[in-house]
Amino acid sequence: MWTKLKKLQNVDDYNKFLDSFETFLFDCDGVLWHGNTLLPRTRETLDLLKKRGKRIIFVTNNSSKSRKSYKKKLESHEIPAEEDEIFGSAYAAAVYLKQVVKFPSEQKVYVVGEEGIEAELDAEGIAHCGGTDPNDRQPMTAEDFETFDQDPSIGAVLCGIDFHFNYLKLCKAFTYLQNSKTLFLLTNDDSTYPSHGKKFPGAGSISSSLTFSTGRTPKSLGKPYSTMMDCIEAKLKFDKEKAVFIGDRLDTDILFAKNSNIKSLLVLTGVSTEREILADDAKILPDFYINQIGDLYQVDDKGNV
Amino acid sequence: MWTKLKKLQNVDDYNKFLDSFETFLFDCDGVLWHGNTLLPRTRETLDLLKKRGKRIIFVTNNSSKSRKSYKKKLESHEIPAEEDEIFGSAYAAAVYLKQVVKFPSEQKVYVVGEEGIEAELDAEGIAHCGGTDPNDRQPMTAEDFETFDQDPSIGAVLCGIDFHFNYLKLCKAFTYLQNSKTLFLLTNDDSTYPSHGKKFPGAGSISSSLTFSTGRTPKSLGKPYSTMMDCIEAKLKFDKEKAVFIGDRLDTDILFAKNSNIKSLLVLTGVSTEREILADDAKILPDFYINQIGDLYQVDDKGNV
Q: What cofactor requirement does the entry state (chains A, B) (predicted)?
């Protein structure tokens, strides 16, 4: 048996790792690509997994895209994927509202977020407002201050990453949340959002303005929380003993694997660093780590397929 | 001697209270007015104080207005005031940057906020950008994600209430704050902003999105922190033993009075309620409280001037 925190660094390690698992769950950004740039030998590695009969599942906290858009994004990198192999935090939120909350059909969700959330709510037949509505992408007017009021038709506020977030949306969501019966949901509480190899404020940063102003804490649905795994397991059957989660962040991906009782592999191409996991006070540790996902492909170079 | 938490409720109480102090420091919204509506007998009470030779000082956490604009607002309610009797959190921030930080003339402050902050920075000769710039009131573009970078000319991010807050401003401030040398200042950390008798998200709610995304805590300059009182005392001489702060919020106004070692009067026309101060677990208590500021005017009705 390998001890905890094994660094995979040669062909033997890679082979042993690949042989240990049947199902490979992948975070995307920072693991497969940086923004629009695919990381080295990612496609080859995924091909290798398929050739070896492994199952691949994509799991992302990015709520700006629906599963359908994510499929397109994967395909733009020539990574074939089926919609039901893709799990996003917007999808997890929609499924949670539909199946757990049994959200009433006469009520609406006020969306602070992008098209991905709207598309997943539509797919589950949940009514919504806000989101990409151009009327909500305007500055707050003097009249808004006067006319703002609670709206009993709003049963939930669902917050995700919103590149059009503004004071008007903040005020609307704040006002609706004054009603303690209005649910407060968050697709994911990532503090940052990776794009173009840089960091920007994430969905958790947007929702923190609502948390601070209302004094309420949202239910967060993406990684590292178990709702996301409930959602995957409700849809796909796989042996958790033979599954591994591959991600670049200790506090979302690796913690998610731990919360879900599956093994984990950290790649060093994203947010978390080798220094963090080797630090004396490291709290969340993966089972394995590797410089980059493409290193696994070396087993193919050596003719070990 | 009155014990702590004396409710002023008759002419004798009012007279004894007025006789005890020379300087009356007033919070404005929730004490003198609600939005554009003056509270009953406010003007008469302020006139009475002047007739009795009392000094009046206005102290507001609202950074959207400069002292000049606040003077106009007071005058619109026929309350005469001099600019140097008015202290706002935007002014406190500008004075702090000028006198305490000695902000370098070759650097700029990135403003997340309204005209009030810009006017006070201008008055102290401090260069700034962001704020009311129409270019910052736009949605984030795909190009922004690519071109965003730190800017060594930005020496501080100063955040206040911003009715035009958006993801673009959040990203800019976040990016500048990645440089640990860039100061992070906040006019006031109020969670809510009162307007039209309602509550909206306040400056502290806006800054909390930066606090969460950057992991940095801003230096807050308005009430309840001592910087605001330092600012008042640097400008006006008065006997603190004979001064009383009058406000409607326990966590800002009354705590400010305590932090400044002056007596306090809570009015029940704003945020904090009688139930809160009478609760067994009440942590911040005023010395006195009264239903509304206009009640003090009753001493005049009885011919006691």
A: Mg(2+)
The boundaries of every CATH 3.40.50.1000 domain in chain B are 18-41+51-89+224-288, 95-220
B26, containing H or E segment:
strand B23-26
- Fold adopted by B95-220: Rossmann fold (3.40.50)
Q: How many CB pairs under 8 A join A and B?
A: 108
Fold of B18-41+51-89+224-288: Rossmann fold (3.40.50)
Residues 6 or more apart whose CB falls under 8 angstroms from that of A241 comprise none
The tokens 């919504």 sit on which residue? A128
Fold adopted by A90-220: Rossmann fold (3.40.50)
Tens-level pLDDT at each residue, chain B (305 residues): 455 789 999 999 999 999 999 999 999 999 999 878 999 999 999 999 999 999 999 999 999 999 999 999 999 999 999 999 999 999 999 999 999 999 999 999 999 999 999 999 999 999 999 999 999 999 999 999 999 999 999 999 999 999 999 999 999 999 999 999 999 999 999 999 988 878 999 999 999 999 999 999 999 999 999 899 999 998 899 999 999 999 999 999 999 999 999 999 999 999 899 999 999 999 999 999 999 999 999 876 555 54
Give every CB contact of residue B254 below 8 A, 6+ residues apart in sequence: B245, B247, B264, B266, B272, B284, B285, B286
Catalytic residue among B13, B27, B136, B287: B27
Nearest CA in chain B to A113: B167
Answer yes or no: do B200 and A146 touch at CB < 8 A.
no
- Rounded-to-10 torsion of CA B255, B256, B258, B261: 180
- The question of whether B27 is a catalytic residue gets the answer yes
Burial code (b: 16+ CB inside 10 Å, e: under 16) for A134-164 equals eebbeebeeebbeebeeeeebbbbbbbbbbb
Backbone angles phi, psi at B165, to 5 degrees: -60, 140
d(CA A87, CA A232): 7
- What CA–CA distance (Å, rounded) separates B88 from A159? 33
Contact in structure between A64 and A163 (CB atoms under 8 Å): yes
Single-letter code of the amino acid located at A167 = Y
Q: Measure in Å the smallest separation between the Cα of B172 and chain A Cα atoms.
A: 9
Our CA angle for A273, A276, A278, nearest 5°, is: 110
The interaxial angle of helices A203-214 and B167-177, nearest 10 deg, is: 100
Residue B59: phi, psi to the nearest 5? -130, 115
Please name every residue paired with A112 in a beta bridge, in sequence order, or none if there are none.
A159
